Every structure is written in C-alpha cells, then in structure tokens.
Amino acid sequence: MPASPSFTSRVAHLAWPILIGQLAVIANGVVDTMMTARHSATDLAALGLGASVYVSIFVGLSGVMQALSPIIGQLFGARKFEKIGSEVRQGVWLAIFLSVVGSVLLLFPDFLLGIADAPPALGDKVREYLALLALALPATLGFRVYASLNTAIGRPRMVMAIQLCALLLKIPLNALFIFGGLGLPALGTPGCAIATGITAWLALLAGWLIVRRGASYRQFAIFGRGLAGPSWPAQAALLKLGVPMGLSYLIEVTAFTFMALFIARLGSETLAAHQVTANFGTVLYMLPLSIASATGTLVAQEIGAGRLQAARHAGDAGVKLGTALAVAVGAIVWLAREQIIGLYTPDASVAAAAMPLFFFIAFYQLFDSVQVGTAFVLRAYKVATVPTLMYAVALWGFGLGGGYLLGFDVLGGTPDMLHGAAGFWLGNSVSLALVAVALVWYLRRVQRLRERE
C-alpha cells in the first residue's frame, strides 16, 4: 500500500519550521567559521579543532536528551497529557546531570588534543575556547528539553523563533568579541565561545518564560507540583532509550571529529579546507535531519494512538520525501561548489584544497538522508540499541578505519587523488551507504514484529 499523500503533506508542514530553526543553529557555526577565517588562519584552525571536540561532546549528550521526543510523542498520541509534564520535569533533571559530565570533559580535553598533535599555540586557543563553552553547556542542554517538548507535540514554530533571534544576536556579539571593540581586546576563537554562552542562556530563559506563562501548556501540568526531585525509575527509562541514541549521535559525529584530528597532522591549510567542507556538509544535513525529526514525531504519535499501519505509512512518506530532496540538493551543490567555497574563505590555497572534497558531500546526500530518516522512525518505536551497533561498525570501522588506511596510504597503492583528506571523505561516504541499507532492513523487521503483536 503506497504512503498516503496526507502524511507527506503533514511531514512537510511540521518539518519546515524545524529546518529553519536548525539552520539558524548551524548558521552560528557558519558565522563563527567565516569571521574567524577573516581574523587569522590560526584561529580558523583552532575553531575547526575545538568545534570538533565540542560538537562530539554536545551532540552525544544532546542525543541522550532526544529520548524525550518519542516518549512525549507517544504520550501525546495517546492523549495522556498530564504524564507529559512529569516527563518534562525529569528531562530537566537529566539535563542537569549531563551538564556536569559534559563540563568536566570540556575542561579537560587533553586526551583528544593529544591525538591531533596540535602546536602549543593552537592547543592553548582550543583549551580556552572549550573552557568557555563549558559555561554554555547547561543552557544548551536545558533548551533541548523545551525543543523536544514542542517538537513532540507538533509545535516547533516558537522554537524556530527563539533560534532565529539567538542567531541575530550572535552576529554582533561575535564581531565584538572576535575582533574587539568598545574597549574589549580582540579574542579570536575564544570570542566565539563567549558569544555562544550569552545567546544560549538567553534562549533558555525565553523558552522557560513561554512554557511558564503560555496557556496552551497548562494541560501538561508542568508546573504547580512543587520542586519534585529526580525519579530514578523515570531517569532509568530515559537513559535506556537515550544512551543508545546519544551513542549513535556520538558515533556519527566522532567519525568527523577523528577525521579532523587526523587531518590536523597534514597542516593548518588542509585542516582549514576540511573545516569549510565539514561545516557546509553540516548545513546540508539539516534538511534530511528536519524531515526525519518531523517524521519521527508523526510516527510516535500514531504509535501512541495505536494506529500501527498509519505509523508505517507516515515513516515511509517522510523517508521518501527526505531522499528526493537530498538528491536534488546534492546536484545543486556540485554545480555551485566554487561559489559556495568562495563564501567561506578568501584564501586561494584553502579553496583549492576544499574543491575536491565537495564531491563527497554532494554524493553522499542520498545515503545520509535514508539513514537519518530511518533512524528517527526506529526511535519513534523506542528502538535504538541495534541501530547504534550498526553505526559503530559502519562509521568507525569502514568509515574512519577505511579512511585512515586510504588517507595515509597505510597499505600502499592508494591513488594520489585519495591521499590526505579525500581518503577520509571517501571512507565516510561508503560507511553511510552501508548503514543506510542496514537500517532500512532492520526497520522493516521491527515494523512486521510490532504489527503482528
């Protein structure tokens, strides 16, 4: 039975504000990259290395927080509104616990920096950058509670509005702290972290005020129950789903993190080219990610309502929509690669090094869209452990391991065009294709089992 057109329309309706909000978040990184590139090549390299470390930690912890979305989505579909408030309160406690863990990792990053073998001056900038971001982490994880609630109940527009406002504030703050002004010194890369911290705490405050005062949230009984402590059974349930979800995000992101750490050995110019390519690849990823998030929300709501056939059709519609759009975007990126790179950097040598890498981010859009869409549908069924194992084997084994063998020509015989960063990017592309096929197979298996039950 083909996917219902109504589900395609519903996915698109829910996905567009998620997409704009996510693009606003990613635009923070784009702004950081463009501004630091105009400050100095050293600051751009420090940003590339520091951002890779931070994103690995933040995305892993944020992935654990994502367990709230399918849980709340199923409760919303089942119309168990008061239980949603309890889950939100437990989500706040989870954000606090994870912030402690993440801040310690950000304050002591020497293990990861040692892998990159970065020069002392570069390492010092990265440490300062990460220490400042440790102050922003509680706010960013706290905001994930607000974002997860709104997405799960199909109201992502206010999240989008806050994220857009944060971006508009980030630009002048970046300019002030990176280049100096109003009596403040030019800080370069650490200035990005200060601007991020200010906007993160303001966004969290805005989200809290909206939930506290908004009449539409009263049905969820989030407030008015006193200062309840953490419920350990509830925390265990969140972690049971959230930890494998967080690990899958961590595996996916650390594949890029370790790429950056290894590529750092090839020099600042090559690392800067990789940073430009990876940053734009992240921007592109927001389209299939937003569609996947919207798809997961609808699937979870249908599961909560007991409509398993409808859940299957919603999942199919979302994955097909994301895949079709990703193919079109990949073709456009390949045709416009020179102009896109020119927007990032005026350095001709960095642009020349980035040019061949853009083939890979144009090529793997198809596989990236399929894997993320399928993964979100599986999470809507509260299935995350087996997909995480698939990610580990494909992305760490075939992707990072294969990329290392190709990029550094460990076995000999690697074509010249695949030496260096290109070898790593080819390995990553192949790994995404493998995990996409594996996840589609596993989703069908899960759906058949649930429908029989």
Question: What kind of sheet is the major sheet?
Answer: none
Query: Taking Cα atoms only, what radius of gyration do you get, to the nearest Å?
Result: 21 Å
What is the element string, with H for helices and E for strands? HHHHHHHHHHHHHHHHH
Helix content: over 70%
Annotation keywords:
globular, 453 residues, 0% strand, mainly alpha
Written account of the structure:
This protein has 453 residues and is mainly α. It has one domain (5-452). The chain has helices at 5-37, 41-65, 68-77, 81-107, 110-116, 120-152, 157-179, 189-213, 232-263, 268-304, 308-335, 337-344, 348-354, 358-363, 365-380, 385-407, 421-452. The radius of gyration is 21 Å and the shape is globular. The model has no long low-confidence stretch (mean pLDDT 86).
